[in-house]
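Quick one:
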Amino acid sequence: MESYKRAFIDFMVESDVLKFGEFTLKSGRTSPFFMNSGAYVTGLQLKRLGQCYAEAIHEAFGLGFDVVFGPAYKGIPLSVVTAIGLEDLYGKQVRYCSNRKEAKDHGDVGMLLGSELHDGDRVLIVEDVTTSGKSIEETYPIIKAAADVEVVGLMVSLDRQEVGRGGKMPALAEVSETYGFPAHAIVTMSEVVEHLSSQGLLDASQVCALDAYYEQYGAK
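Output:
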Protein backbone atom coordinates (compact mmCIF):
# COMPACT_ATOMS: atom_id res chain seq x y z
CA MET A 1 0.00 0.00 0.00
CA GLU A 2 1.34 3.45 -0.90
CA SER A 3 2.54 5.59 1.99
CA TYR A 4 0.06 8.38 1.22
CA LYS A 5 -2.80 5.89 1.62
CA ARG A 6 -1.57 4.77 5.03
CA ALA A 7 -1.13 8.40 6.06
CA PHE A 8 -4.67 9.22 4.95
CA ILE A 9 -6.17 6.33 6.92
CA ASP A 10 -4.30 7.47 10.04
CA PHE A 11 -5.50 11.02 9.35
CA MET A 12 -9.15 9.91 9.16
CA VAL A 13 -8.87 8.06 12.48
CA GLU A 14 -6.96 10.87 14.21
CA SER A 15 -9.56 13.40 13.05
CA ASP A 16 -12.44 11.23 14.35
CA VAL A 17 -13.81 11.12 10.81
CA LEU A 18 -13.91 7.32 10.51
CA LYS A 19 -15.99 5.61 13.19
CA PHE A 20 -17.09 2.06 13.91
CA GLY A 21 -20.46 1.15 15.41
CA GLU A 22 -23.96 1.04 13.88
CA PHE A 23 -25.03 3.74 11.45
CA THR A 24 -27.96 4.23 9.05
CA LEU A 25 -26.72 5.54 5.71
CA LYS A 26 -28.39 7.80 3.13
CA SER A 27 -28.90 4.66 1.05
CA GLY A 28 -30.92 3.11 3.90
CA ARG A 29 -28.30 0.47 4.66
CA THR A 30 -27.23 -0.13 8.27
CA SER A 31 -23.45 -0.01 8.33
CA PRO A 32 -20.86 -1.02 10.96
CA PHE A 33 -18.73 2.01 10.05
CA PHE A 34 -19.26 5.60 9.00
CA MET A 35 -17.08 8.27 7.46
CA ASN A 36 -18.07 11.86 8.20
CA SER A 37 -15.99 14.45 6.36
CA GLY A 38 -17.83 17.15 8.32
CA ALA A 39 -15.57 16.27 11.26
CA TYR A 40 -12.61 17.96 9.56
CA VAL A 41 -13.00 21.30 11.31
CA THR A 42 -9.60 22.90 12.01
CA GLY A 43 -7.46 24.86 9.60
CA LEU A 44 -4.70 22.25 9.78
CA GLN A 45 -7.12 19.38 9.14
CA LEU A 46 -8.65 21.14 6.14
CA LYS A 47 -5.24 21.98 4.71
CA ARG A 48 -4.15 18.35 5.01
CA LEU A 49 -7.43 17.13 3.55
CA GLY A 50 -7.04 19.33 0.47
CA GLN A 51 -3.51 18.10 -0.06
CA CYS A 52 -4.62 14.46 0.29
CA TYR A 53 -7.26 14.98 -2.40
CA ALA A 54 -4.78 16.85 -4.59
CA GLU A 55 -2.19 14.06 -4.37
CA ALA A 56 -4.73 11.34 -5.15
CA ILE A 57 -6.21 13.37 -8.02
CA HIS A 58 -2.78 13.98 -9.49
CA GLU A 59 -2.06 10.25 -9.30
CA ALA A 60 -5.37 9.18 -10.86
CA PHE A 61 -6.24 11.98 -13.29
CA GLY A 62 -3.24 14.21 -13.77
CA LEU A 63 -3.96 17.94 -13.92
CA GLY A 64 -5.96 18.26 -17.13
CA PHE A 65 -9.09 19.94 -15.78
CA ASP A 66 -10.37 23.45 -15.08
CA VAL A 67 -12.96 23.17 -12.31
CA VAL A 68 -13.36 21.17 -9.09
CA PHE A 69 -17.07 20.62 -8.39
CA GLY A 70 -18.31 19.67 -4.92
CA PRO A 71 -21.99 18.75 -4.46
CA ALA A 72 -23.84 20.45 -1.60
CA TYR A 73 -23.37 20.31 1.23
CA LYS A 74 -20.21 18.47 2.27
CA GLY A 75 -18.76 18.77 -1.21
CA ILE A 76 -18.64 22.56 -0.91
CA PRO A 77 -15.65 22.72 1.49
CA LEU A 78 -14.12 19.70 -0.26
CA SER A 79 -14.03 21.55 -3.57
CA VAL A 80 -12.50 24.62 -1.91
CA VAL A 81 -9.73 22.80 -0.02
CA THR A 82 -8.96 20.62 -3.04
CA ALA A 83 -8.49 23.69 -5.22
CA ILE A 84 -6.14 25.10 -2.59
CA GLY A 85 -4.30 21.77 -2.28
CA LEU A 86 -3.74 21.59 -6.04
CA GLU A 87 -2.17 25.04 -5.97
CA ASP A 88 -0.11 24.23 -2.86
CA LEU A 89 1.36 20.99 -4.18
CA TYR A 90 1.45 21.47 -7.95
CA GLY A 91 0.95 25.18 -8.67
CA LYS A 92 -2.23 24.21 -10.53
CA GLN A 93 -4.85 26.96 -10.72
CA VAL A 94 -8.41 25.61 -10.88
CA ARG A 95 -11.77 27.15 -10.09
CA TYR A 96 -14.18 25.71 -7.56
CA CYS A 97 -17.90 25.34 -8.10
CA SER A 98 -20.72 23.89 -6.01
CA ASN A 99 -24.48 23.70 -6.17
CA ARG A 100 -27.10 25.03 -3.84
CA LYS A 101 -29.94 22.86 -2.62
CA GLU A 102 -32.33 25.66 -3.56
CA ALA A 103 -31.90 28.36 -6.20
CA LYS A 104 -31.07 31.85 -4.94
CA ASP A 105 -33.30 34.56 -6.40
CA HIS A 106 -31.37 37.71 -5.43
CA GLY A 107 -27.77 38.91 -5.67
CA ASP A 108 -25.69 35.95 -6.81
CA VAL A 109 -28.70 34.18 -8.32
CA GLY A 110 -29.09 30.61 -9.52
CA MET A 111 -28.25 27.08 -8.43
CA LEU A 112 -24.45 27.42 -8.43
CA LEU A 113 -21.97 29.15 -6.14
CA GLY A 114 -18.30 29.82 -6.67
CA SER A 115 -17.25 29.83 -10.31
CA GLU A 116 -19.72 29.72 -13.15
CA LEU A 117 -19.44 26.77 -15.52
CA HIS A 118 -18.63 27.57 -19.15
CA ASP A 119 -18.93 25.59 -22.36
CA GLY A 120 -15.79 23.52 -22.81
CA ASP A 121 -14.83 23.41 -19.13
CA ARG A 122 -13.31 20.15 -17.89
CA VAL A 123 -14.87 19.36 -14.52
CA LEU A 124 -13.66 17.01 -11.79
CA ILE A 125 -16.21 16.06 -9.12
CA VAL A 126 -15.11 15.54 -5.51
CA GLU A 127 -17.20 13.81 -2.85
CA ASP A 128 -16.53 12.37 0.60
CA VAL A 129 -17.83 8.87 -0.11
CA THR A 130 -19.99 7.02 -2.61
CA THR A 131 -22.09 4.18 -1.19
CA SER A 132 -24.60 3.40 -3.90
CA GLY A 133 -24.04 6.16 -6.48
CA LYS A 134 -27.29 7.97 -5.64
CA SER A 135 -25.59 11.32 -5.06
CA ILE A 136 -24.06 11.37 -8.55
CA GLU A 137 -27.51 10.72 -9.98
CA GLU A 138 -28.52 14.03 -8.41
CA THR A 139 -25.32 15.94 -9.17
CA TYR A 140 -24.56 15.05 -12.78
CA PRO A 141 -27.72 16.63 -14.31
CA ILE A 142 -27.02 19.88 -12.43
CA ILE A 143 -23.53 20.13 -13.91
CA LYS A 144 -24.60 19.24 -17.44
CA ALA A 145 -27.55 21.66 -17.32
CA ALA A 146 -25.26 24.57 -16.41
CA ALA A 147 -23.05 24.42 -19.54
CA ASP A 148 -21.68 22.12 -22.21
CA VAL A 149 -18.88 20.77 -19.99
CA GLU A 150 -16.85 17.56 -19.92
CA VAL A 151 -16.87 15.68 -16.61
CA VAL A 152 -13.42 14.12 -16.48
CA GLY A 153 -13.94 12.04 -13.35
CA LEU A 154 -14.97 11.58 -9.74
CA MET A 155 -12.67 11.41 -6.71
CA VAL A 156 -13.96 10.28 -3.33
CA SER A 157 -11.98 9.87 -0.15
CA LEU A 158 -13.24 6.38 0.70
CA ASP A 159 -14.43 3.60 -1.61
CA ARG A 160 -16.81 1.59 0.55
CA GLN A 161 -16.55 -1.24 -2.02
CA GLU A 162 -20.26 -1.93 -2.02
CA VAL A 163 -22.57 -2.84 -4.87
CA GLY A 164 -24.25 0.05 -6.62
CA ARG A 165 -27.95 0.70 -7.01
CA GLY A 166 -28.20 -1.92 -9.73
CA GLY A 167 -27.00 -4.56 -7.28
CA LYS A 168 -24.58 -6.19 -9.72
CA MET A 169 -21.30 -4.23 -9.68
CA PRO A 170 -19.27 -1.97 -7.39
CA ALA A 171 -20.80 1.48 -6.92
CA LEU A 172 -17.83 3.37 -8.36
CA ALA A 173 -17.67 1.05 -11.36
CA GLU A 174 -21.41 1.53 -11.85
CA VAL A 175 -20.93 5.31 -11.82
CA SER A 176 -18.23 4.99 -14.48
CA GLU A 177 -20.37 2.75 -16.67
CA THR A 178 -23.49 4.89 -16.31
CA TYR A 179 -21.93 8.31 -16.88
CA GLY A 180 -18.86 7.50 -18.93
CA PHE A 181 -16.13 8.95 -16.73
CA PRO A 182 -13.63 7.25 -14.36
CA ALA A 183 -14.24 7.18 -10.61
CA HIS A 184 -11.51 6.67 -8.03
CA ALA A 185 -10.94 6.87 -4.26
CA ILE A 186 -8.01 7.92 -2.11
CA VAL A 187 -8.38 4.62 -0.22
CA THR A 188 -10.63 1.57 -0.29
CA MET A 189 -12.31 0.04 2.73
CA SER A 190 -10.25 -3.13 2.34
CA GLU A 191 -7.11 -0.99 2.58
CA VAL A 192 -8.52 0.64 5.72
CA VAL A 193 -9.24 -2.73 7.34
CA GLU A 194 -5.82 -4.07 6.36
CA HIS A 195 -4.00 -1.07 7.80
CA LEU A 196 -5.99 -0.77 11.03
CA SER A 197 -5.88 -4.53 11.66
CA SER A 198 -2.09 -4.49 11.29
CA GLN A 199 -2.00 -1.88 14.06
CA GLY A 200 -4.41 -3.77 16.33
CA LEU A 201 -7.04 -1.02 16.07
CA LEU A 202 -9.94 -3.30 15.13
CA ASP A 203 -11.28 -5.82 17.65
CA ALA A 204 -12.87 -9.20 16.84
CA SER A 205 -16.46 -7.92 17.10
CA GLN A 206 -15.74 -5.07 14.66
CA VAL A 207 -14.13 -7.42 12.17
CA CYS A 208 -17.11 -9.80 12.50
CA ALA A 209 -19.57 -6.95 11.86
CA LEU A 210 -17.58 -5.83 8.82
CA ASP A 211 -17.49 -9.37 7.42
CA ALA A 212 -21.27 -9.73 7.83
CA TYR A 213 -21.92 -6.37 6.19
CA TYR A 214 -19.75 -7.13 3.18
CA GLU A 215 -21.29 -10.56 2.82
CA GLN A 216 -24.57 -8.75 2.15
CA TYR A 217 -23.50 -5.56 0.39
CA GLY A 218 -19.91 -6.09 -0.67
CA ALA A 219 -18.87 -5.89 -4.31
CA LYS A 220 -17.57 -9.18 -5.57
